Amino acid sequence: QVQLVESGGGLVQPGGSLRLSCKMSGGLFVIYNMGWYRQAPGKERELVADITGDGSTNYADSVKGRFTITRDNTKNTVYLQMNSLKPEDTAVYYCNRRSGFLSWGQGTQVTVSS
Would you call 89 helix, strand, or coil by DSSP? Predict the structure, then answer.
């Protein structure tokens, strides 16, 4: 059974940085296009960034230039480096496949506040 475990969230001041990690176990990570998603209170889950198996990336306009998605296929892990964080980035962050979702993990809470 494939499992996704997110980590690295926390409380940070506006303008700060965080690095999120998501480790997959039990799946063929290297062939999956992966994405980072977020869900703020009262809002639908949205795609923030995605990365193909060979490293091509796409970003939502709201995070372009501030967030960077990367992956390490040897560790079955996808990362999200978040810089210049804003209060509107506050959300629970999840990773999953870009399509054909696996069971969602518990996510990691990111709170941007002074």
Answer: helix
